[in-house]
């Protein structure tokens, strides 16, 4: 967006994608970028009465990785619409790496989070060790809360907290 009087940029770049009168159903959104990029996605779903639901997601993507979102749309009743990010252990690990590359996570927290995410991934694949995987994820969530503002940026906290909570819910 540019100032019409001066021609100088004003605010962050924005892209808008509209779907005119979509049918009820499930939709997928894939976020990608050719270079390491932080982003915010806002999804607004409107029903036939003009009521809406808003979903906001923060993320980071770069060359070779994507973030995936699912949207369940209901045109008769917006409160029946939902959206969530599809999070995997690999996407969590990728976010940890990317956030460290952007200096949003310091080295000490990066190494600890990276190692625990790898172990939690291995533990999640076995019925007998799934509880240990969840415990590790919860301890990672406590770590990022304690380090928020002290080695972990607010943005990194928001992204990783969402990742971790999504994984806990899916195990």
On the 0 to 100 scale, the average pLDDT is 94
Order of helices and strands: EEEEEHHHH
Strand runs, count? 5
The structure class reads alpha+beta
Largest sheet descriptor: 3 strands, antiparallel
Q: Give the proportion of residues in helices.
A: 25-40%
pLDDT below 50 for ≥5 consecutive residues: which ranges?
A: none
| Tally of helical segments | 4
* Order of adjacent strands in the largest pleated sheet: 1-4-5
Strand content: 15-25%
Name the shape in a single word: globular
Compute the gyration radius: what is it?
18 Å
Straight-line distance between termini: 42 Å
Describe the structure.
This protein is of the alpha+beta class and 171 residues long. It contains four helices and five strands, in the order E-E-E-E-E-H-H-H-H. A three-stranded antiparallel sheet has the order 1-4-5, with no helix packed on it. It has a two-stranded antiparallel ribbon with strand order 2-3. A hairpin with a 5-residue loop joins strand 2 and strand 3 (52-61). Helix 1 runs antiparallel to helix 2. The longest helix is centred in the C-terminal third of the chain and has 18 residues, at 107-124. It is globular. The chain starts with 24 loop residues before the first strand and ends with a helix.
């Amino acid at each position: 967006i540019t100032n019409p009087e001066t021609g100088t940029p004003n605010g962050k770049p924005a892209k808008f994608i509209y779907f005119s009168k979509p049918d009820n159903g499930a939709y997928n959104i894939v976020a990608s970028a050719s270079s390491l990029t932080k982003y915010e996605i806002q999804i607004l779903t409107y029903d036939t009465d003009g009521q809406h639901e808003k979903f906001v997601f923060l993320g980071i993507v770069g060359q070779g990785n994507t973030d995936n979102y699912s949207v369940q749309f209901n045109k008769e009743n917006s409160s029946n619409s939902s959206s969530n990010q599809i999070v995997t252990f690999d996407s969590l690990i990728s976010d940890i790496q990317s956030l460290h590359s952007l200096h949003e996570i310091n080295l000490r927290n990066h190494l600890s989070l990276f190692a625990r995410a790898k172990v939690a991934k291995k533990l999640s694949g076995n019925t007998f060790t799934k509880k240990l995987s969840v415990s590790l994820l919860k301890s990672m969530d406590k770590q990022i809360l304690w380090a928020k503002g002290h080695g972990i940026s607010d943005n990194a906290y928001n992204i990783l907290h969402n990742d971790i909570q999504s994984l806990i819910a899916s195990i």
